[in-house]
## 1
Amino acid sequence: MICRQIPVIKIRTSGAFLRDPLYNMLQLRKVKVSAKMKYVLSPEEIKEKSVDELNEILRDLFSFDYFREQKENNIRVTEPFRADGLNRVLYKCPHCLSEGKMIGKGTKLSCGGCGKTWEMTETGTLQAKDGKNIFTHIPDWYAWEREQVRKEIEAGTYILDIPVRIGMMVDSKSIYFVGDGRLVHNAEGFRLTGCGGKLDYQQSPVASYSLYSDYYWYEIGDMICIGDASALYYCFPKKGGDIAAKTRLAAEELYKINR
Ligand SMILES: [Zn+2]
């Protein structure tokens, strides 16, 4: 909701993602971080515009591609660990289509299924070792993964079903670890059961457009968070696996289909 009495100001950082991308295990790179402030809309302009026009302006403001900016501005990330954990984002091999077998280590991303290997360059692009590039721009690979998830949903084959450790947030003081359970995500949405039968929470696909899932959350592990105003459930996969990105993509595509 926009209050029409005050202006809209945007402050955007540049370089923060390149300095500390979440997939990279909280390892810092030597990249300068800066911020720019922009006066976007005056109170008068807000009054004149429709809600759709305002939403369009806000949508454009929040659209960005840090990898493209890195390449265009030739920002070099020379650290030898820059591809560590990249498999969290690029979890599916576009060559053999296997999932969960990607390994991001050092400056390389490789597939444990077919052996295809990519070098992550200092400017954030990918170069296939065999010279046969599929995606050189990481967001293009990610967009392809979204299409693949969408196809699974439409074919009725999409499912996540994993054992998890469960942390609950019911106040502003702490996350309380309450036990183990099972997290299922499919066309019906999420269902979390556990704690010796005491917990059974379901969440519709239209409850939220996006999903709060994160990599290496507070150094505990990759995490998927669901819940409502009364409780949030932080689910940590017990067997690991690169499920945070795929589940988020699936949640977004399920929302779009069901709306
Ligand atoms: Zn492969």
## 2
Amino acid sequence: MGAWARDFFRGRPTWMNVLMLFCAYMAFVYVPWDLFAKPVARDQEVWFGFLLTGWAAKAGAIPHWIVYAGGFYGFLRRRRWMAIAAPLYSLQVAYSSLVWGIGHFGGATGWAAGLAFAAPFVALALAFWKTRDHFRAPRVSLRKRYGEWALVTGASSGIGEAWARALAADGLSCALSARREDRLEALAAELEAAHGIETRIVPADLADPEGAGRVLEAVSDLEIAVLVNNAGVGCAGRFDLRSADELAPLVAVNCAAPLRLTSALLPAMRGRGRGAVILVGSIAGRQPLGLHAVYAATKGFDLLFGEALYVEMKPFGIDVLVVEPGTTETEFQQVAGEVPHSGVPPERVVEVSLEALGTRPSVVVGWFDWLRISVATRLVPRSLTAWIGRDVMAARVPEDLH
Ligand SMILES: NC(=O)c1ccc[n+]([C@@H]2O[C@H](COP(=O)([O-])OP(=O)(O)OC[C@H]3O[C@@H](n4cnc5c(N)ncnc54)[C@H](OP(=O)(O)O)[C@@H]3O)[C@@H](O)[C@H]2O)c1
């Protein structure tokens, strides 16, 4: 509990943590009570200095709820828009206090009271403005934060390629692994020319039990500071219509390989007191997924493995993150045998990961997928979630595999 609290409140000034808790109280306790339990006749809300009563006050509580819920989320995740929203809202409260004071007391007393009420909120707005960098997600260069070399598996396409580009742009030298050597070579040449970094090509088949060992051997002389366990594969279709030979590589590539690579590279990171391990999971790993049963199970493994590793490794200065994309526009669907459907660009997955790295154990890419998966896994009976998951997949899997 203590470690959780330290992690939860880390990185913000104390006064900002206090405001975050205040917003949580307002959003989850006070405003819901105000909206649903307080008698209409007794309800009062002040907006822009004007006192609203009765049903107008009830309606006024809704934007208040949005402000406090948004404030809690904004403080928690340090969203960029808070740099503007927080001082603006404080100024609105300051203005409200001034107008209310003048209206309530009148004359010079009213001005004096209004100014006295408004002053703390003007100070708060200024404090927000001065500390706006907290909301700009200023990232220390990954190379400075973790070290010189990154190992990216599945770098020959899609999300892995996007990871390699982002890490190289940040100055990290990259060991690039996958089976398609020609693609890795082209990417390596491009990254070296564009960013002046070093690269190393590590061709390996991670479905092969010796594959991860070959990767480790090829990078044994490098200090791997960032490990991106990205290589992954799916195999769509009803379980009994797919053979074990088709499905076993999913377990090897998506689960066994990350386990082997992470296990081998973590001790050195621990010795250096810094490092990062990223597991590319999937929102598929949050629920049972008929017609993609084994894939979802492997991504569930990645999620639970990575989240547990986050808390184990945090005290040693190592950041672990499971990134959970929804549909992403890569070769994945084609390889998995899915019906093509649109998704987010792979660069977005990396962008979201880099924002979240070091701040939490896992991150879902995109608010809609977050909402969808949170409702499905927290509010809906598990049996219903399983049926809905199968229905969603039915539209994405060819009918002869249903
Ligand atoms: N695209 C999506 O909708 C989506 C959604 C959620 C999560 N994900 C996850 O994102 C990760 C990256 O997938 P992607 O979307 O970028 O798909 P992708 O474009 O198909 O890339 C998959 C990568 O994994 C490599 N790989 C596959 N099998 C391998 C093997 N046996 N040995 C070594 N490398 C292998 C591939 O390289 P070679 O073929 O050259 O070996 C390729 O570089 C995966 O873990 C996937 O589960 C994808």
